[in-house]
Design a protein that fits this description.
single chain; nine-stranded mixed β-sheet; two-stranded antiparallel sheet; 6 helices; globular
């Protein structure tokens, strides 16, 4: 089984976020980047298929040279090889078109992507990929087993989970649950050294258009100071809840 894991290069959640160029571009200065958490859950599950069923695992990213340390970390975790599409990921459609070409050329049986990336939370790419390629698709995947070409998956739905049966070729949008946080792999020294010798192929992007653009980013308004009301002054409390907080 050939597995392709889509890896997004996203800011660490502890990083301080700022914007430049009239708040239209993300400022990367001083920001540490990591593997997108949903993608890391998917990568860990792919490594399980590698160890238990002899699958070959390739990771792919659409981005510039600055994303290669993230791909090298994925190789150190256990992926067999990596691919970088040398382009700036302008929007979800552009990324999906680039990944679709990689998938068609590589003949992958199973494509694992996070259901959304931590930075933009668009949740578009896995579904777009399935539409472009005509592959089966399971989103919000929290369990996944493969036997031959038969697949059993569970997906999170409101109030519970849905169990589905499908077949390869398949694209999934996964999240926590496909593996748990305790199952995530930390690269050891041997893995880090081995990753330096694994293949990292750079591909030029195919020609396609971007269908959307970011006009402006805006941070949430800072929280106002806490107002303390005397326990005996219920009239003032009700007035503030009604006229200022507007919750009653």
């Amino acid at each position: 089984m050939k597995i392709l894991v889509c890896i997004s290069h996203v800011p660490d959640t502890t990083s301080k976020i700022n914007f430049t160029n009239s708040d239209s571009e993300f400022d990367t200065n001083g920001v540490q980047f990591v593997i997108n958490p949903n993608d890391e859950f998917g990568l860990t599950r792919a490594i399980w298929f590698q160890e238990q069923q002899g699958a070959n695992v390739t990771v792919v990213n659409v981005g510039g040279p600055e994303t290669e340390p993230t791909l090298r970390k994925a190789l150190a975790i256990g992926a067999n090889e990596a691919i970088r599409v040398n382009a700036s990921p302008t929007d979800g459609f552009f990324v999906a078109k680039q990944l679709a070409e990689v998938i068609k050329a590589g003949g992958y049986d199973l494509v694992i992507a996070g259901k959304e990336s931590l930075d933009y939370n668009g949740g578009m790419v896995p579904g777009m990929l399935a539409g472009l390629l005509g592959y089966n698709f399971v989103n919000s995947c929290i369990e996944l087993t493969v036997e031959g070409t038969a697949v059993k998956a569970s997906r999170e739905i409101d109030g519970g989970k849905e169990i589905v049966a499908t077949a390869l070729p398949l694209i999934i949008g996964c999240q926590k649950g496909v593996v748990e946080e305790k199952d995530l792999r930390i690269p050891n020294m041997r893995g880090i050294m081995t990753a330096r010798t694994k293949a990292l192929t750079v591909l030029e992007p195919v020609s396609t258009s971007s269908e959307t653009k970011s006009v402006k980013f805006e941070k949430p308004a800072p929280k106002s100071a806490v107002k303390l009301i005397n326990a005996d002054n219920l009239d003032e409390l009700i007035n503030l809840l009604h006229n200022e907080a507007k919750v009653i």
